[in-house]
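User: My advisor, Dr. K., asked me to get a structural model of this assembly before our group meeting. I'm new to this, so sorry if the format is off. These are the inputs:
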Amino acid sequence: MDSRSNKEAVQATNDDASASKLSCVKKGYMKDDYVHLFVRRPVRRSPIINRGYFARWAALRKLLNQFLDTEGNACEKGHLKKQILSLGAGFDTTYFQLQDEGKAPHLYVELDFKEVTSKKATLIETCSHLRDKISATASISRESGEVLSDHYKLLPVDLRDIPKLDDFITLAGMDPSLPTFIIAECVLIYLDPDSSRSIVRWTSKTFSTAIFFLYEQIHPDDAFGQQMIRNLESRGCSLLGIHDTPTLQAKENLFVEQGWQRAVAWDMLKVYSDFVEAQERRRYVYICILENFPLIDLVVLLVILWYHLCFSRIERLELFDEFEEWHMMQARDSEGFFVKCSLIFSLMIRLVLSQSSDFQEHYCVAYAINDALGLFGDFGFLNHRHQQPQPHVMNLSSSASP
Ligand SMILES: C[S@@+](CC[C@H](N)C(=O)[O-])C[C@H]1O[C@@H](n2cnc3c(N)ncnc32)[C@H](O)[C@@H]1O
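Assistant: The format is fine. Below is the predicted structure of the whole assembly, which you can bring to the meeting.
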């Protein structure tokens, strides 16, 4: 690795990611019944971090669902086999979640450093919750960091070793002609630009009908970006690739220059406001308000509003003896009450959301498309046919405690 980056520190970013996902799950922002199995020391993340993970999760799941729901021509309906390849998968649990949702693809392959896959293989072997989700005949090796089952494979590889990638996808039983969804969440940005470009080129050459989903940082040059980079550098995991692709345009160019047919990149502010479902955003805002404003604040607020509504009217009522006037005042008061309520509410929401806009502007989702089979004409941010990232229950009780 580059002297500004060391392997252990980059691998440790995986523990951070799992802890952050668990923080989000415990607050009720998203559902993941498995991530707690991968976190030794749960932590409570700030609302800003929670929002980042929530938006990232919602965007990935929505695009992934579009891919999984894509159908070929009439005779392939329901029979089109699909595969997912997760680069630098860490302790991600998407495979297990898709299993629960009955949406798991024909093949799900995860690659990471051996140190990471060994830990994941050990957890899969020892934890029945995880073990039950892969076939009974699976072969699991903690030493070599491998899980080989019918529909799920976990393999150890340094992604920069391109010739090995070919061997590993053969070992995993991937069919390069099948529709393939490639995930790289906060992975390529830790690699030197030549390695990232080689990986992007290799995926494009290998998979002719594929989506590449990328989530990572942008804008290293403003004050927030510089601080973000310093924080990571001080931990020994520099964002080696960020100056090579610092903007949305540069992320799109990366894909097109390395052979992908087309690419689109949006920052997370836009993804959140224009792509994440309104219903998901509302759910987010409710939980976020509860998280940002302790219950006591809300109770005080309600008491003030209640006082305003009841007492102020009764006091003033004594001044009136005309019944009609009382009705008019009641109408005015209730209007005023609702106006005030919605003003206070919208101020709270603005306060909550404005806190995290800097953060959201420094992350992006980019996707690239190769469409040899002509399946992905509708795919992407502008496809509004998919309403829900996934079915799940709003868990307000769990949002009360981390
Ligand atoms: C920030 S974590 C993200 C994990 C996962 N993608 C997620 O979003 O939860 C980065 C992961 O990339 C892996 N990684 C980084 N460089 C790698 C390389 N050269 N080869 C294999 N894995 C790598 C790390 O080990 C780590 O698990």
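One thing worth pointing out at the meeting: The first helix runs from residue 7 to 27.

User: Perfect, thanks a lot.
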